[in-house]
Structure formats: structure tokens, C-alpha cells
Specification:
Order of helices and strands: EHHEHHHEHHHHHH
Number of helices: 11
Radius of gyration: 21 Å
Largest sheet: 3 strands, mixed
Structural class: mainly alpha
Strand order of the largest sheet: 2-1-3
Strand content: under 5%
Mean pLDDT: 86
Length: 316
Amino acid sequence: MASRNHTQVTEFILLGVSERPELQIPLFVVFLFIYALTVIGNGGIITLTIAHPRLQTPMYFFLRHLAIINLGDATVIAPKMLLNFLTTHKSTLYYECATQLGGFLVFIVAEIVMLAVMAYDRYAAICHPLVYTVLVSPRSCLLLASFAYLYGLLTALVVTSCVFSVSFCSSNILNHFYCDNVPLLALSCSQTYIPETVVFIFSGTNLFFSMLVVLVSYFNIVLALWRIRSSEGRKKAFSTCGSHMMAVTIFYGTLLFMYLQPRTNHSLDTDKTASVFYTLVIPMLNPVIYSLRNKEVKDALKTFLKRHPCQSCKHR
């Protein structure tokens, strides 16, 4: 963290998604709706995968943790964002900003790792069904899930410490709706080479190895599906990984769009648009993707609703 002798900034002003006053209430309603759906959807996935006996497999264990990560990611960002829509002084304290950046990094990195873990799980299930329970044992599941969180925490500690080791003394106006490393480093009045290098190394390494695991896993899955002669068997095998493929495509597509665009076309406004998508929209979409394309989840939801009808329905 930056020492007090070098840090004159005690708070940051967040410009938010839009600075236009007439859009603040409509945007508040839209993002409140998105966040509410995120909480309901991911909370529902967590509840179903804990309560329903048919959803006690490694695939649903990892899906539960993806839902926890998505819920955590959205919760780190959304409440402060919604509050700022309703206030004229859109400020965040220095250490509050550092905490938000750290929390965001924990969950976004954990999601990158978890998507790779889920791809490996589908690879093991389809390509090595006879030894699947050995490759993805309960102990392995716990270790892989723990690694996702611990590695996210390690990344957050290192990157956040580096970002807040610089001096902020020129401006405290942050062109973003939450505390992210790129707009924060843009405010620095000291050398940012080391923090920028650390951010680049962690971002590049995380994306590269996660995408490598996903691509290798699905390459082998496609080869395995190609060898299945029965169209029914091929369809059944593909259905188990179709939802994950869709979620991975949306998530990585957004990150690649953000990080691989030419420097001449790069702007913080573009970053804000992409950030809205992977911090708020994707966590809302994931429960929909995994439930609509998954018969077991839909059946579990129907069973759960029959066993736990709403109180208003009981009195009718």
C-alpha cells in the first residue's frame, strides 16, 4: 500500500457508467434488475446443487462454486454502483477502493480458474468415463475448488498491493464505475512501470493457461465425440458440455475483446462497456445458460418447487 507521506488522495470520485443526470434513475432501475436476477439465479443454483440428491456430482459441485463466484463478483461491484446512481457525490474512500479492487480480483481470477476446471471435468467425463471417478474424486474436487479461491486471493493481494504502491496526487477522478487497476494507474503521478508489468504478467498468464486448458480439453472432447457412431450417444455427450461451451465463449470473448484491441482504439469508455458485461451481465446470464440447457437442473427445480411451494400459493 502507498504510504501516507506519498498519498495525498484520500478518496476517489467515480464517474460511473454515465455522467448524464437524466440517465441516473433509469440506469439504477436497469442495474438493480440485473443484480436482483443475479442474486436469484445464482442463489437458486447454489440451493439446488446443495439440496437435490441428483445434483451431487462433480459437474454440479463446480457449477455451485461458479455460482458462488458469480454472486461474489456481482456483489463486490453492484451495491456501491447502485448507491452512486442515487447520490450526487459519487465518492469511495481510498481503502474502500483498494478493498473493492481486491475483492473483484479474487472473484474474477477464481472464475477464470473455475471455467478451466469445469472444462477438465467435462474432458474427464467424456474422454475417460471408466476412470472418471478416480480423476475427479471428491478430494480432487475440493482441491481444485480451493485452488481457484486461493489463487484468486494470491493474485488480488499481489496486484492490489502493486497498484496502490503508486502515488495519487494529480487527480482523484476515476473514469469508471468501480475501482479497476487500469483507470487507477492512469491517475498515478509516479512511475507505473512495475505495477503495469505485474498486472500484464498476471492477466496474460491467467488468460493463457486457462484458455489453453479449455482449448485442449474441448479439442479432445470433439475428437471423442467424432468417434461416437451413434448420433443419440453423440448428442447426449455433447449436451453435458454445451452449456459450459456457451458460458466460456461469452466470458473469454468479452475479455479478449477488452485486452486484444489495438492501443490506438483503446479507451476507458470501451473498458467500462466490457466491464459491465463481465462483472454484471455474465453473472446474470450463467444461471440461465446452465438451467435452460440442462434437463437435470430443470427437473431438480420442478421437484424443489413442488416440495417447497410458496406460502401465498398454499393459502389459495
